[in-house]
Amino acid sequence: MIKTLGPKTAILSSICLSPFSALLPRLSLCNSSLCQSKQEFLSQTTNSQMLSAFSFNPLVSPPSISSTRFVVKMSAIATTKNKGMLAVESLVLKPPAHPTYDLKGVIQLALSEDAGDLGDVTCKATIPVDMEVEAHFLAKEDGIVAGIALAEMVFNEVDPSLKVEWSRNDGDRIHKGIQFGKVHGKAHSIVIAERVALNFMQRMSGIATLTKAMADAANPAYILETRKTAPGLRLVDKWAVLIGGGRNHRMGLFDMVMVKDNHISIAGGVTSALKAVDQYLASNNIQMGVEIETRTLAEVNEVLDYTSQSKTSLTRIMLDNMVVPLPDGDVDVSMLKEAVKLINRKFETEASGNVTLETVHKIGQTGVTYISSGALTHSVKALDISLKIDTELALEVSRRTKRA
């Protein structure tokens, strides 16, 4: 995070943008006496004081790293000095909500790790400071484009005078060889922003492309991602899933009770775990979704037996690894179908495990409400996109290498 101290001086402040440090503003709040409800918990977090302001100057080198530790309250939408929300014309789909995540802070962290302590030395050595150019975004493969709005935020953060135009929006299909956007302005600023903008776009587009294919195949079930995201990029990854036509699972540990196998083992079984959850939520006056993982039909029946006799907050049952791989590459979904039939729409259902692009259609036909896939975000194949000033030469090279 960079604090501007004067027109020619910028100092990197030590930042707390890791998943652990992002929790710091909330840790003191999260106990039974203070977390009276989810709403109260989120409002306390949201109203935490912003302790440090962001700025990024691509032409000034930050000379040192301060040892001061800042705990930064975060929001999902980047901010401007005037009205609080960054105006992005290409913001077709907003990022998912998160009480502590700062999209602008993530952008600045990416720019800062690129700039290091000297800035872009190659740019300083080869490009006149006042030179202006126009660069074009080129697609080198077919897919769903995502991260256009985020790339625009990157350019705006580096240099608000840059002019960015797009012929596609987030979620649109692009084809190999097409130009789908351009940026005009100072060459220094464009080159500095280029790799960070592309890194976000390529990752997000890869996620969106796979999500779109999985979501179409899963119909009528909905496709979900998981928490298996790149550390620090949770919101960005989940935003890409939304752009690709999927839906978001829980954002983190704070917004849904999800009783998994380890919780069940420690609690002493499915019934004990559910009782504990219901008692905890009631005693703390918290209302939120509750999901429990089941691995066998016996566990499904145990959940149904408990909920038929007790008032419960349970909203969804996960049916984990009930899709059985077969030697020929097919899958056996008979156990999953039986579980869905037992639940009989009393609760939402979610299939998990052995979900691939090849198997998701068959899983989606079993009647499950949702299908979750960690592969959407933990095994990303980035979509090949480039930003070129000399587009004719770039296209010539791409044709030579069969990439356009």
Automatic annotation (TrEMBL):
Record domain Quinolinate phosphoribosyl transferase N-terminal: where: 120-205
Keyword Kinase: no
InterPro entries attached to this UniProt entry: Aldolase_TIM, NadC, NadC/ModD, Nicotinate_pribotase-like_C, Quinolinate_PRibosylTase_N_sf, Quinolinate_PRibosylTrfase_C, Quinolinate_PRibosylTrfase_N
GO biological process: alkaloid metabolic process; pyridine nucleotide biosynthetic process; response to wounding
Keywords in alphabetical order: Alkaloid metabolism, Glycosyltransferase, Pyridine nucleotide biosynthesis, Transferase
EC number assigned by the record: 2.4.2.19
Catalytic activity: nicotinate beta-D-ribonucleotide + CO2 + diphosphate = quinolinate + 5-phospho-alpha-D-ribose 1-diphosphate + 2 H(+)
Domain Quinolinate phosphoribosyl transferase C-terminal, residue spans: 207-388
GO MF term list: nicotinate-nucleotide diphosphorylase (carboxylating) activity
Coiled coil: none
Free-text function comment from the UniProt entry: Involved in the biosynthesis of pyridine alkaloid natural products, leading mainly to the production of anabasine, anatabine, nicotine and nornicotine, effective deterrents against herbivores with antiparasitic and pesticide properties (neurotoxins); nornicotine serves as the precursor in the synthesis of the carcinogen compound N'-nitrosonornicotine (NNN). Involved in the catabolism of quinolinic acid (QA).
NCBIfam families: nadC
This protein's name: nicotinate-nucleotide diphosphorylase (carboxylating)
Organism: Cinchona calisaya
